[in-house]
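User: Please predict the structure of the protein below. I'd like the answer in structure-token form so I can feed it into my own downstream comparison script.

Assistant: Understood. Taking the following sequence of 326 residues as input:
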Amino acid sequence: MSSTSPVARGRPTALDVAQRAGVSRTTVSFVLNGRAAERGITAATAERVTAAAADLGYVPDRAARSLRSGLSDLVVFAAPGPQPLSTLALHVITELTDLLVREGLHLVIRRVAAGRPLHEVWRQLSPAAVVGFELGAPDLEDLRSAGVPAVSFAMAAFDAALGTAQARHLLSAGHTVLGYVAPQEHQFRVYGDRRLGAVRRTCAEAGVAEPVVVSCALDVASATGVVRALVEHGGVTAVCAYNDEHAFAVLAAMAELGLRAPADLAVIGADNDPLSALAVPALTTVDPGTVATAEHLLQQVLAALGTPTAHPLAVRAPQVRVRRTA
């Protein structure tokens, strides 16, 4: 004798839920897609449907649901590849993921190979929206033509604000000759150049010398050579590091050379890595506001989807977290 129970047949379906709740499959679809009220479905009926779905362990198939409704709950984050994402970018993406979940949306990361069109990573998913750091004009036009909302975050202004905050803090402390530790890693050079450009502009506006620029790999040997060069250069008393990781390398090199921060060389990082407070000594850094940045991106996504918030948030100005090194 054959069984017709959902367990015997395998994965339960929307029809199984409808039969259990005593409603139509269309009603199940409306309830589970959050459209019960607009369709005049009573609260009691909606509760019966959700209880039936829970009892059966029914999970809607996302692809099928998207095909039926023409809607998707996926937001694609287009990440440049093949280089790894920075710690800062990962923190922003993590916060954005959690915020989108509260709105019934789910973030998926797709890597975009250099020189390849963005549509290679989003068309198969039919997302509700696409988010990225500085999406190119051709990709934005492609998304617009396809009717897919896009949010492109302006990293240039973001990086400039970080560099400006670093330089202003050191100059306000009385330092007049700054060093700048730039990344050797090719994939971070464009961001480093922007931050350095802001440090240069801030020094020029203050009427002090241009910063002394050195590049550093993330190892003690490279950083030791960099710190030695800065110390031997006449007048350098403080250093802006591209980010906290490069600041950690500088601090490790200073320890190797018997130097102390800030007595021998003041050091300021950027990005407010959680480990910056645990460095020895604790690292002064610039906090870009990852939560505020993620909230700003969320509002842009919601606005692009036609549900703008009542009080739009601007990107928060970065704040210096003063600790021991500067």
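That's the full token string. The longest strand covers residues 74-80.
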